[in-house]
Request: fold
Amino acid sequence: MIPVKPDENSNFFFMNSKTQTSRSKTMPHPHFHPNFEIYFITEGTVTYFIEDRKYSVRSGDIVLIPDGVIHRTEYEDGTCSRLLINCSPRYIPTSVRAEISSYLYLYRNPNVANEVLKIFEKIEKEYNSPDPLSESIIVLYIHMLFYILKRHRSGCEEIENNTNYMSEAVEYLKKNFTRKVTLSETAKYFSMSPEHFSRSFKKENGVGFNKYVNLLRLQRAEELLRTTEHSISEIAEQCGFDDSNYFSLKFKELYGVPPKSLRKSYLSAE
Reply:
């Protein structure tokens, strides 16, 4: 679940997490954030489902997830330790933003893992013991982090992604979610049975077909609530929902508040 509205005065967050993990601690629901997330895995393994891709992430890997990107994590039994940075795009150097897509979503280069870890540790120290210069220093460290990733991009290991047809399926949904797109229709489009397509989709994307379509619709609805004056029923229809009450119910499940309340929070912040 993402916050009702990001606090513009709290656009940076750091967390050092070390836990005994199990499938019972798996994040069951896909979600997205209003800020950029950077993970550094220091111990153990974890599976990330990000957009249309599935990654088995291990110690030394860096996971980069831009704002608004749907993702979910799935743990195996054992210990998993992660360092997390959640920050607004302004922390990312301008010269890197234009090519950031070439780094996504998993950056694996053992030759820079120790250097990256040291930067995370310096950021953690500034975050936990701040002074008037800490924010500016953190910005510099994050810039250094991205410059290192850029400099050593050619040394990254190739990462296996999903099968082509499943990536194509996600792109198909992104283009068609505003209409009444169905599992049967989509499976037929890719010359598969609905049952096989449904199993493959969930296995590769970490979320069922209908839930993924609803996430796309709700993301778009949040954008329309923020940027237009369309009524709730108009937005529901434009995003592919037949029933505005059902839309409001699903919207509240994801955002924690009804659509009307979210719109009011945006208006009051202007």
